[in-house]
Amino acid sequence: MENEIQNNIENEVKKNKPYKISKNKVIKFAILVVSIIIFIIFMVTIIKFLTSDYHKLNKMGYDKETAKKIVAIKKSEVVKKLDYNEKMLDILTSKYFIDKNLENYLNYYNNNKNKSIDDVIAIVNVHADKDFYSLELKTDTDLGNAMLVNKYYNLDENYEPELVNVKNWYSYGEQKVTEEVYDQFILMFDAAKEEDLTLIINDSYRSYETQKKTHKLYGDALAARAGASEHNTGLAIDIVTYGADGDDFDQTKEFAWLSKNAHKYGFILRYPKDKEYLTGYDYESWHYRYLGRDLATKVYESGLTYEEYYAYYIENK
Ligand SMILES: [Zn+2]
Fold it and tell me: Which of the listed residues 98, 125, 152 is the one where a domain comes to its end?
């Protein structure tokens, strides 16, 4: 009997033994799984760090602060294209920075290190890093009053705006502009008249053919090529007054009045002083361009040339 009991106990122990071994196995297995998970997380973290924009910038030579700032302001696809440049952060944070121009900014800056970064941005945005007439971009005439015409954006010879004749009362010689320009000019003329000022249209629409002949006569230094003159749009007028019909116009009360009020009627001074390197045209105190009231006011308030405004706010939109 005792023997039988002893046997039973031994059997029980034997039965339980495998259970004890499997418990140990489970613990070992769990430890292994946790270790593998920790290892994977560790490796993923390392790989993530090594392939991060921050680490790449750091390796390129940017200090930690600069690298952090660049990552914070620019998308990964922009960061991927970066190289080391001592002015990179200034370029990326410049107000009128346009992503697609980055390579051109860097090229231009590297060859013109005396220029301010804001100038580099402006010059590249308006294509002034390229030679005049070298791009032959088409003017987007669908933009109507907002179209850009200059030494990079040209009208083709078939462009003919609808025009109305200006009464002699408002002009020297025969002048033509678009109807909207004419209506707004008359409002502007009347407003100036109330302050005893006289605005006279001295030049306006010029056809493609006329511009071609003018350019042939005077050359690039003195005349725009056909298709590159705003006078081809019917949206540009040269304004003068009695006794001042050229460079002296900016000494007149009429000019001072226009400087404060032209945008209210939709006109801007198109070729301001000291902006020749952006507009491609010498300072012309008499040349006004119609953009419409809203746009003219925005451009006026921005303090930008129309080239800069167009590049950033219209073309890049
Ligand atoms: Zn003009």
Answer: 125
